[in-house]
Design goal:
By secondary structure, this protein is mainly beta. The chain contains two helices and 13 strands, in the order E-E-E-H-E-E-E-E-E-E-H-E-E-E-E. It has one domain. Helices cover about 10% and strands about 35% of the residues. An eight-stranded antiparallel β-sheet has the order 4-5-6-7-13-12-11-10. It has a five-stranded mixed β-sheet with strand order 3-2-1-8-9, with helices on one face. The longest helix has 8 residues. The radius of gyration is 16 Å and the shape is globular. It starts with a strand and ends in a 13-residue tail after the last strand.
Amino acid sequence: MVIEVLSKPPAVIVNGLRIETAPPVADLLRVIGTPTRVDTGSRPAPTGFRNNQLHVFDPLGVYVNEHHHTRRAQEIGIALSAVERRYSFTPVSAFAGDLLFDGVRVPLRATDQEFLRQTPWPFKHSLAGLWDHQFDGFSIGIDAVGPRLASGRRSKKQFVIEVSISWPHDPNGPPAEGG
């Protein structure tokens, strides 16, 4: 699997599918395959509504976030570690494909500092182990945590465990065809 983020012109390319704005989920499923499972959250949506659908591809280490109203893909999440599954939608396997930012292959097993040094863009630190870079309606977030020590506390040395990539999406736009 190959996921590439381009800044000029802005786009995300997933297995050859060029994304410039939120595509129908079916488009991504055509290039990724059938999800292992679909996570709809721990609480059911109110009657007449639906939750976001998280299409999880466990063997690939990725998930696709489908917006509840537009039924369009609004984000792809990439698990770089599967040691600690923090959310119900976290894939059971780590991503083993290629992740490129403007043609630069970023490391899949790295500390946050190593990862940030090898990216072509400046990331802004928001809090704890969270960093992001935004441009033209696109957003790339990285999540880093320290491994658990024997004491139960976390190491100060943080490793990137997830990368999330989102693209322009109008949450009030019409639902995708066939949705």
